[in-house]
Design a protein that fits this description.
There is one protein chain. The protein is mainly alpha-helical and 280 residues long. It has one domain. The protein contains eleven helices and no strands. Helix 2 crosses helix 11 and helix 3 crosses helix 4. It is globular, with a radius of gyration of 21 Å.
Length: 280
């Protein structure tokens, strides 16, 4: 059985090599995989996931305060406020009960400055990751200053707003939910192009960044479905066994998948741009 499996694997590899020589699209995919391996994409994604996890901590403080104020204004429980604002799954189970705390102003005043600092740290990681993937060693590279960090924070919040709106439509109507999922691809791609043009990408125009943005948008919807229907139910079911560590581990897995999308999107753009600039 093992011999047959090895022979089948060799045949698949040989067939793929033949198709690579015949079709430029297959050769491009092979080159993307090789490029991703050369830059250690998994390690870059792990570093980005860590930065995203750190970024979520002050964001949680701000959400805690916001849920508390929203619950008071609407005269409802923090859990209901979380559902109204679109927070669900792992995040709502972690912060909705914490919103009952009376230290909301403290969380808000501490959370906002730390959130800006964490966003600058995340921006620095994004710049470094794209510089490695694009092999961009120019001296004039973007700096993780305050204004670019605030712009990145607005973009990340934009992703959250689009996701929350699509989730609300899917919850209210399955038919319109499918349409909302497809429509959400457009703002996802547009927001990521907005980010991609502000990180190292050599001299490629913004139109050369569209393929990676499309890959990122489609992949984000797939990752969202995996998180909602697989990771979150499993983590909540095992909460009694693993406690907060289980939720943190599940959250890190989701952030790692999103970070892999960031790396793959950059690899796609960099590979296609190099192939375009390469002599025939």
């Amino acid at each position: 059985m093992r011999v047959d499996a090895q022979q089948l694997a060799q045949q698949v590899v040989q067939r793929a090599e033949v198709e690579r020589e015949r079709h430029r699209s297959v050769d491009a995919v092979f080159e993307m995989v090789e490029h991703e391996g050369d830059v250690a994409g998994a390690i870059i994604a792990a570093a980005l996931a860590y930065r995203l996890f750190i970024w979520l901590l002050p964001l949680t403080l701000v959400i805690v305060a916001g849920l508390g104020f929203a619950a008071d204004a609407a005269s409802e429980s923090p859990q209901d406020a979380a559902g109204t604002l679109g927070f669900e799954g792992l995040i709502s189970s972690s912060v909705a009960s914490a919103a009952k705390s009376s230290n909301r102003w403290y969380a808000l005043f501490i959370g906002i400055p730390v959130l800006v600092w964490a966003t600058r740290s995340l921006l620095r990681a994004l710049i470094g990751a794209h510089r490695l993937i694009w092999s961009d060693v120019r001296a004039a590279t973007p700096k993780p200053k305050l204004v670019p960090a605030l712009v990145l924070l607005a973009v990340l919040l934009g992703f959250g707003i689009v996701s929350a709106a699509a989730s609300a439509v899917r919850a209210s109507s399955p038919g319109f939910g499918v349409l909302a999922t497809l429509v959400a691809l457009v703002p996802y791609a547009a927001l990521w192009i907005f980010v991609a043009v502000r990180v190292p990408h050599r001299d490629a125009p913004w139109t050369a960044l569209v393929p990676g943005a499309v890959v990122f948008a489609v992949g984000l919807e797939v990752v969202h479905a995996v998180i909602v229907y697989v990771i979150t139910p499993y983590a909540l079911a095992k909460q009694g066994t693993y406690g907060a560590l289980g939720i943190a581990a599940a959250l890190l897995v989701g952030l790692f998948l999103i970070s892999r999308l960031v790396v793959v999107a950059a690899v796609v753009n960099a590979t296609l741009w190099e192939r375009r600039a390469r002599p025939a």
